[in-house]
Amino acid sequence: MLYSLYGTFVNTGTIILGSFLGLLFNKLLPERVGKTVMSGLALCVIYLGIDGSLSGRNPLIAIISVVVGAIIGELLDLDGRLNRFGERLEARFKKGNSPSIAEGFVTASLVFCVGSMTIVGSLRSGLAGDHSMLYAKSTLDLVSSFVFASTLGVGVLLSAFSVLIFQGAITLLAGLLSPLLSEVVIAEMTCVGSILIIGIGLNMLGVTKLKVMNYLLAIFIPIVLCMFM
């Protein structure tokens, strides 16, 4: 069981390392440069979302998944719960005029936990012990966490634990769900997750204020829909 989590452990470790480095060197990065870099990173996030969303084969599955996921997420108030948790962390750890811990935690958690590499990589780790995609994601997250932490602060470091829990859960559940996880199902899950990634990128640019966390469960709706469509 522990072997199946190696990819997640490595990914968590690289986020912690990148965040520490970002916090260490943040004073070397002028604020205007940090904002420009963040905007560029947001564009890259949108690109990754668009690229992953093209893996879907049935647009109706993506539409229904997003709608159903949004309804469930709103009823459970997932976004509110995550933000309140971030605010509790902020009340406990924030000092002086440091960046918002809640914003850094929520933004980084969503970026690191939602997307095609997270879903497919975690499933591969759980089903076949293949960690190659999560290792590749770890490299990307090392760079991203450095940039995020240098601009958004210590909340990015705390998001590593979100990755550990979310990716670890998908990896461990993959074995139980393996009879249902055909290539078509994984493709549709990847598509939905990538649509959410686009929303995160738009939020980062300030174009929208989507409660992306409330759509999170949409990623798993295709498992059910693909049985009937």
The proportion of residues forming helix, as a percent range, comes to over 70%
Topology as a string of helices (H) and strands (E) = HHHHHHHHHHH
Which outline best applies? globular
Major beta-sheet overview: none
Q: Helix- and strand-based class?
A: mainly alpha
Ranges where pLDDT stays below 50 over 5 or more residues in a row are: none
Q: What is the number of independent domains?
A: 1
Terminus-to-terminus distance: 33 Å
Q: Work out the strand percent.
A: under 5%
Strand tally is 0
Mean pLDDT over the residues:
87
Whole-number radius of gyration? Answer: 17 Å
Write structural notes for this entry.
- This protein is 76% helix and 0% strand.
- The mean pLDDT is 87.
- With 229 residues, the protein is mainly α.
- It is built from 11 helices and no strands.
- It has helices spanning 6-25, 31-53, 59-76, 78-93, 101-113, 116-128, 132-152, 155-158, 160-177, 183-205, 221-225.
- The chain has one domain.
- The two termini are 33 Å apart.
- It is globular, with a radius of gyration of 17 Å.
- The longest helix is centred in the first third of the chain and has 23 residues, at 31-53.
In short:
This protein has 229 residues and is mainly alpha-helical. It has helices at 6-25, 31-53, 59-76, 78-93, 101-113, 116-128, 132-152, 155-158, 160-177, 183-205, 221-225. It has one domain (3-225).
